């Protein structure tokens, strides 16, 4: 059985896809270790320079002052050239805006001037991100306790702490709290930015904020009280509370469309395509998932597959990709590799992703043709995933060296690689043989964390570490950002790997028609490793919350004095901090 298992292409591809983020993590570890070594060298150099500055003689201080004035001197603009305008009559300077590289698809240039972020908009965005962090910590604290319950199922006997109530609290709070709040906050920043226009209405932005918060808070309380929709996974909030959420999203859509309508740019940048489409789709998803007209018998099962998968792919994934098309070029300080690849990925994801919900119900009573369409569409998802991944990685081209010193780019890279491996692993899991082994096992839990955590959450962390310092002017502690990254990455790899191995063994036992209890017993060590990985992930979230706090508080920057001005400033600071003995 084992030989035939590893001979299956679906299993082989899954193993290969899991290895991609693992190998990437190892490469980043080597790069970061070297960077830490260089940082220690710089700190030693800083200490040596401080020691030398303390011993500067008055003559040396005067020399630095004289040199500082010399370096600050600027020649008047017309002293050498006169008052005539600068011209290039011979045409010597050419192609200064040309990227000298071969493109598979022509790049569509879009010149967008930076818009000024008003304090009101900055406050709105930070509040969305702040509450996103809050919901992340609460949701994953619940998730941490649920992971412990797999190891110690008798940890409590309180009804509102039961697994059946806490599990939807965890999933819905991650969905509609953490990820949705962060994405909407970023959308309120990106849309005005690339449209070169002010947000249409700050008041409507706050209305979205309050409505979404009310939905998550009331929905969570109702779930813990045992009041739920009972209609399927990820839609356990009852309809009155999800109506509040839908109203908030509707206001968001109107606000964004009115902002784009007032744009001062000729073209609509690809980020706006993805973001607005995602907002439109989530409204459709909520209507399909909560209107009762077609939810009878198999109809409800089909709706559940549609709702669950479109929520992930056409809300979270779609909007995050739109944000990636803005923030990755911003962070790398270069344009996206190919505008056309972005549009190709946009339309093919709409074409294929909207058809794949039923691949969760292979070998069910759903018509065979519908299952086959879902499998074929899952394979079709290779097109947008490969197009998007290629676009992002080629944007990195020429900037890979920045990974050594950047604390944000590792989050981008891991998010992109998980986008490739996690998405294609979903395609492989849709094959009939692999679905036969893994369906109804913990493999689905592993896959969901590979995507919602490895892709969505890592990308949102990358965007947070990119944007918040630009809004506040305050950097997070780089050491703790590194700890956050490694705990989250290693934790999720332990989490998904242990569950995938255990679930494969469980599925094989079921196929061999062994007693169900055997599959429970065999999962015990893998659930322990799940708890270990989950604990690392949870700790990383606490560190992320601390880093977010530091980004909205003061953070001194270490600067090695090199210029005369910096040396004189350091001299003055060192004199002011000299030890003064008490009387």
TrEMBL record:
BP terms from Gene Ontology: aerobic respiration; electron transport coupled proton transport; respiratory electron transport chain
PANTHER family associated with the record: CYTOCHROME C OXIDASE SUBUNIT 1 (PTHR10422), CYTOCHROME C OXIDASE SUBUNIT 1 HOMOLOG, BACTEROID (PTHR10422:SF29)
Species of the source: Chryseobacterium koreense CCUG 49689
Protein name: Cytochrome oxidase subunit I
PROSITE patterns: COX1
Pfam families: COX1
GO CC, alphabetical: membrane
GO molecular function: cytochrome-c oxidase activity; heme binding
Assigned keywords, A-Z: Electron transport, Membrane, Respiratory chain, Transmembrane, Transmembrane helix, Transport
Record-annotated Cytochrome oxidase subunit I profile domain positions: 122-583
